[in-house]
Structure formats: C-alpha cells, structure tokens
C-alpha cells in the first residue's frame, strides 16, 4: 500500500508569537485533517505528524516521519512556517530522495513561483484547496506520472516552473468526509485554545464554511476566495456530535470568517443544537454588519457564549482605507445588541495600519474602551503575501518583507512617521488600558463560578501581565 504522511512543521510558540508566546494558542491543523480524511477514504495509508503540537525538534520530526515509511509527504505551511517546512524537506531528501515532497497551504498558494524557486527541495506545490487535488495527484503519479493533467499544481519541468490549470473550488463541501481527528495527538492534551477564548475545557475548533465576501486589503483570500461556501446544518451537527461523543469536547470555537452569514442554515443548526440538548457551548466570528437582535437571541439560546468581531481600528478613515466597508456606528450598535442578548463580545484590532499615527492609535484605544467589549486582542498590521496591500505597502511606510517575521505579532510594516518601538509600546499600552479597568476585572471575576474556573482566570491573567511587562 502507498503511504502518505501529512506534516505540520515543527514551530515553537516563541517562533509563532514572539513576546506573546506564553499566551499563544495551538489549534489542530484542520486543513491536514481534511486532506488526511480524503486520502484515507481513497485507500492511501495515511498518517499525520503534528510536530508543533508534539513539540518535536527537527531531528525528532524526521525520525517520526521516517517511521511511517512514506512514499509521499504533504507539508502545510503559513508564511512564517515555510522555512521550517523547507528544513524538514531538505533533511528528508538526504535520508531518502525517493520520497516525493508536496508543499501546500496559504503561503505557496499566494506565492507559488517565488516559493518553489527559493526552496528547491519541494518537488510539487498544491495551489488552493487541496482535497480533490491531492487525490488526483497521487492517482496520476501512481498510474503514469502525468501530473500536468492535474489542476491546481505548480510543477518542476526541466528546470522551469509550470502552473497547471486553476482548480475550481469544491462546490459541495458535504462531499468531504469528517476530518481525521483520530490521526492527531490527543486533542485535549496537545492543543490549547487562545486564552479567554473558551468557555470550558476540553475545547476545540472547527470550520464549517470557506471563503469571505469581504474586500479587506490586509486579508489573503487566495485559498478559499471571495465566494462563501458552507457545509449543511446536518454536516455541522454531525461534526459537533462526533467531537462531543468521541472526544468529550464541551466547548467549540467555530473558526469560520463569518459563521452567522447564512441565516436559514444558522437557524437549522441552532434548532438542532437545542433539540440535542447536550452539554456544549460554542463561540464564533462574525462581521458587525450581518447581525441583528433576532439572530443574536437565536444563537444565545443554542449555546453561543461569545462572538468575536473584526474591528481593526477606531479611526473611520483607516477603516475606509482598509476597505472594511463598515462604520464605527455599526460596530457600536452590533456590540450593544450582542451584549443585550447575553453574549460576551471580543474585538480583533490591528496596530500599525497604513496612515497610522499616535493620534489614530489613541482613537482606537479610546473607542475600544467606550464600546461594549469584554475581550480585546491587538496584533500587528502585517501585509501577508496574497493580500492586496502586500503589493503596495511601501507606499505607506517601511515594509520588511522577511517571511520569517510575518507572524502578526512582530512589526514588519512601520507606517511613515512612526517607529517599531512606538508600535510595541502602544500595543502594550492598549492591552493595559483595556484590561486593567475595574469593569473588565469584575466581569472576569463573575465568570469564576468554581475553583477550576478561578484557576483558569488566574492563569490567563498571569500570562497577560507577563506578556505586558516582559
């Protein structure tokens, strides 16, 4: 039987989050779980090595991979993980050059030719969604090696690079098998959600739709595109039920860009959750312009305890420049509606936008403190490959395009008239001003209904303080 190993490269929390490592999260590689489920369904002997979750060194990662005697290895990589992926591939080639190394994920999709040119150890690149592509690739390679007939690939062809036809998005997501969570290390032991982003433990995350209709200039939509596709309500409930019954999960973080978008599907999911009445809470992401009091009341009854919104800035001029297509007044209203429904609110913010100044940062901090927000997260504005702003970021400041540092937590873009030190200082100032208020502290204390929840809050608070003073 043909063996394939899927790899999440060895990346430490320090490499991912820098100074914020202690509070960093470690989610299961959902893309790999979906790919593994598909190859297994098609009779390929399939394994997953999540080197990040197992905290493996490079040598330990190689030893684990080789133990499965792979014919193929499929590596996923974000921009800052691409170098780790390359290290593994390069070493692997010295051990067994017959292993075909396939690179996939958001980075190679956004920059296929640049990636394959820089990293000669990658044999093939998968561009875009990989579930159909990976099976066709393996089938073709095993049959006749005619990979040029497979859509969605970048290939090496006599020293040149060739991109095959664009792979069409998967229209029926329900055609995919449930993710192969069973091939991962133990969910409750090796993975941890972001601090303050789970209601109870064990908690895990799922994705129920792909794509985003937004036009935000800082977002890379090259993998899933602008057209939103979704699993049916029945499939979503099947995923949740499987996690509850087989893994003891009690809290689910729904990582869709806009989970509340499709209202009929949402109502069906919520009705089924109420009907099942199992001990489960959940949270999700949404845009402020797609919620209303009726929707919020519906999801609250079905167990939703927190909704996170992409707010980004307290400056309307910056929001307009980013093509967020929302108004500050909409943000304020949506957050109030959410709180009135009994749901906690979280805001995602960025610092260091194009045209950012100390005055706009001050506006953002004051805005965050003035609206109905329970939780606050601010990361660094980063022009990732594949985003619109990546092509013209230098127009607005200094852009250090080093892929290694594109984590979202390290300032690689410095707006004109600002410095890296100012961005770091104001970022910590924003966290301190938001969280060190009696209102916020009291809201967390109210959530401490037992000893485990108290310990959880104390740990989270300690991590936050250490990150700020470090």
Structure description:
The protein is α/β, with parallel strands linked by helices. The protein folds into 2 domains: 3-163, Rossmann fold; 193-435, Alpha-Beta Barrel (TIM Barrel). Helix content is 40%, strand content 17%. The protein is built from 18 helices and 17 strands. The strands form 4 sheets. It has a 7-stranded mixed sheet with strand order 2-1-3-4-5-6-7, with helices on both faces. A 6-stranded parallel sheet has the order 8-11-12-13-14-15. A two-stranded antiparallel sheet has the order 9-10. Helix 10 packs parallel to helix 11. The radius of gyration is 22 Å and the shape is globular.
Query: N-to-C terminal Cα separation, in Å?
Result: 51 Å
What's the Cα radius of gyration?
Answer: 22 Å
Give the overall pLDDT as a whole number.
92
Largest sheet: 7 strands, mixed
Oligomer: single chain
CATH superfamily of the largest domain: Aldolase class I
| Percent in helix | 25-40%
Strand content: 15-25%
List the strand order in the largest sheet. 2-1-3-4-5-6-7
CATH fold annotation of the largest domain: TIM Barrel
Form type: globular
According to DSSP, the number of beta strands is 17
Name of the CATH architecture of the largest domain: Alpha-Beta Barrel
SS summary, helix count = 18
- Quickly count the domains: 2
CATH class of the largest domain: Alpha Beta
* Structural class label: alpha/beta
Low-confidence stretches: none
